[in-house]
Amino acid sequence: MTSAPDAPEQGFRLSQLIYDTRYRSLTIQAIVFILVMGGAAWLVDNVIQNLNDLGKDFNFSFLGQRAGYDIGNAIIPYNNDMSHGRALLVGLINTLWVSFLGCVAATIIGIFVGVLRLSKNWLVARLMTVYVEVFRNIPVLLWILVAIALLTDVAPSPNAYKVNQQTGEAQASMLLDSVAFTNRYTAIPSVHFDRSLGSLDTALAPISLNFLALVIVLIASIWVNKRMLTHAAKVQESTGVRPTMWWKSALVLIAPVVILAIALGINPEEPQIKGFNFTGGTNVSNSFVALWLGLSLYTAAFIAEIVRAGILAISKGQTEAAFALGLRANRTMSLVILPQALRVIIPPLISQYLNLTKNSSLAIAVGYLELRGTLGGITLNQTGRELEAITLMMLIYLAISLSISGVMNVYNNRVKLKER
Amino acid sequence: MSDTQAHSVAYVRDTMLPQQPAPAGQSGAVQWLRENLFSGWLNTLLTLLGVALIYTLVMHFLPWFLHGVWDANSIKECRTIITDRYGEGATGACWAVIRERWHQFIFGFYPPELYWRPILTFLLLFVAVGPLLFTWVPRVLAWFTPVYPFLAVWLLWGGSGWTPIMIFAGFVLGAAILLLLSPRLGSIMAFSIGAFVAILYFLFVVGLLIGGLQAILPWGLESVDSAKFGGFLLAITLGVGGIMMSLPLGIVLALGRQSDMPLVKGFSVVFIEFIRGVPLITLLFVASLLLNYFLPPGTNFDIILRVMILVTFFAAAYIAEVIRGGLAALPRGQYEAADALGLDYWKAQRLIILPQALKISIPGIVSTFIGMFKDTTLVVFVGLFDPLKGIPDFIRADFNWKGIYWEPFIFVGAIFFILNFAMSRYSMSLERRLQRDNH
User: Fold this and answer.
1) Average pLDDT, chain A
2) What is its subcellular localisation (chain A) (predicted)?
């Protein structure tokens, strides 16, 4: 057995740093590091010098000062005596709220349109194609502006909903007798409880105990239902016969909530025109409705394409195989097609949710005060602290984005193909 | 046994009957309708709903379109004309605003006597990108492509004619050093030296050269300030500029993210994730409010250039992710084959990996471009006159056109639709053209 002769021992030469692949990557990384850090140092140095020249400093104490401006659509209690920090929080909650509702609406419309685009009905498929192409190829800002123009220009004033005493008719009629679009706000029904359990005061906002009780009961029912289903699966595995579950599930899921709601005396409160305005129900500002509508309709076009691509990605053989096994159409869909399609659908869906959240910063066009409107708008202008406000705003958006993609990735990992 | 019967039968038909058309219910329009529109109760219901929807839309909007007025000087005049022609209570479109202000929608406040410059730039754009996009364009024109950006900037903004030439000369200088030295010193050293010399040239020499040459032989175009840019001129300038600069940057970032070197990879990841995590509006605010904090005191440069830099970063981060997908989709064997051939990193990327990865990424890249072109409308929030909100708001500020909403929306929306739809159709045709099934 002969051992290979040792490589000729040569001293380390400087040229090896460039030509020897063992050292080259280290050299490149060192140079990149120096360049990036040098660039960063240069930027920071400039910032310090510029701030000095302007006589400014870098601190966030302005968040504690009195804000002094009103926010029309504050979800948590807010008045203009509160601090800029509180205004920031209001804006952040508004951002999250409109993004959440937008994602929900966009998903529903998107699935609807995506599935209908694959329909065998020629006319409906064409109509949906037109919808997708039109909304995808025109900037979202236009849709938001169209929505606000529709609401402020075309919608009647609240007065028009008033019943004329002579003719017994109103100029405008409410949608389903419960929603009224007016040029100032949209009146929608709200939930009213006859018996109130009072409310829980927290630092953020008072929480109605009635809603809390309903949510807790609902969560408990879902948990019990899940346990029952697990049990049913176990029985099926051991005996081969699955106990009839649908009515038990329905009972567990629906009955407790309904009983509690009746006990609390739940009833919807419809908006009524009284004098010049709607009372009862909730008046949602038009800026919110326009933003929500524009974002949802625009994003839905993208989600429709994602859904369509996801369904098309599942080969026809899968459907045929399922039919050959004797599965019916709806079982095929829920057991064979959808689980596979979801794998294709979810990653791009995540990025659409992120896009919608980021696009909610277009609220500036309709005057809805969300994070960009409060922290990056009025607070910034009042305090003149561009550097702090914009840095903070970017970090908050970054945190939102990272958490959305984190949560959705956890879900994606659960549904993705398990390779063994 | 059975064949005996044939002979025993008295009469056997020896000619074929001519083919008959299918029964009336199973051919032509009737059959098509039955299969595509009325094949079941659900299908019928959907058809009826679709017809009802189209009917409502047409009944609602068609009269408005048909009653359009092209010849008027104010919205009031429009309304009078419509009432005169179609009776009390009739509504109609007032296209007169488009007829009167189309130049602002297209060019913003660019001086009218200089309109030939943006138009020429736009036409030359097709000459420059033609050889890249279409195979039937002569390849010779590819020489024009690298010249075009300098020419375009000069045509649009004007100024001394020496500026684009001398800046172009800097790039030529760097490239010449790279080509001359690379056989002797290897590509990395040659690239570093070339880049170093070019940077020195840009920092210290180019300004003197331009000043000196301009003093000796002054020539150039009337300069146009960035504040005069607006409308689709602004949107297309930002869009095309961003696209041209973000593609190379995106490729570099994607390669950086796929790199084996942890530091390079780390920096790329941080950059990409940071840019992708924040809305474009905040980046535009950085461009308009913060950029002068980050630059040496007294530096003040053009707002369009600032916005374009941030738009480029934004698009580059998205393109990097698209290309990373393409790189990841390549079979491992392609990388191994490149190594087996003894190619170094850059040669392997240039000859084997990137052509395939870019081909896979075409749909994603084009949709990023479409998204970016649409996003150029957001510059209105940093005080530029975009065609969608900036210009219409400006026009509505005129008392004559106060309260006109739909016509500008329709006009601008239609142009955006046509441009973006054309881009997406082109990308589909490109995909088909580049399709190789034997990979």
Assistant:
1) 84
2) Cell inner membrane; Cell membrane
- B358, B374, B379: which is closest to B427 by C-alpha? B358
Query: Across the interface, do A397 and B412 touch by the CB < 8 Å criterion?
Result: no
Q: What is the pLDDT of residues A317-366, one digit of tens each?
A: 888 999 999 988 888 888 888 888 888 888 888 889 999 999 999 988 88
DSSP-assigned letter for residue B376: G
User: Model confidence over B209-240: pLDDT tens digits?
Assistant: 888 888 888 887 888 888 888 889 999 999 88
Q: Is B270 on the interface with A (CB under 8 A)?
A: no
Measured between CA atoms, the residue of chain A closest to residue B283 is A394
Q: What would the pLDDT profile of B371-407 be if each residue is shown by its tens digit?
A: 899 999 998 888 888 888 888 888 888 888 887 888 8
Amino acid (1-letter code) at residue A286: N
Whether B389 sits inside 8 A of A401 (CB atoms) is no
d(CA B43, CA B45): 5
Kindly report the pTM of this predicted structure. 0.86
Q: Does A58 touch chain B (CB under 8 A)?
A: no
Chain A partners within 8 Å of B186 (Cβ): 18-19
The two tokens of residue A39 are 């660039």
Q: Average pLDDT for residues A149-157, to the nearest whole number?
A: 83
- CA B68 to centroid of chain Cα atoms: 32
Cβ within 8 Å, pair B50-A116: no
Cα-based distances in Å from A197 to A200, A202, A208, A265, B118: 9, 16, 8, 11, 69
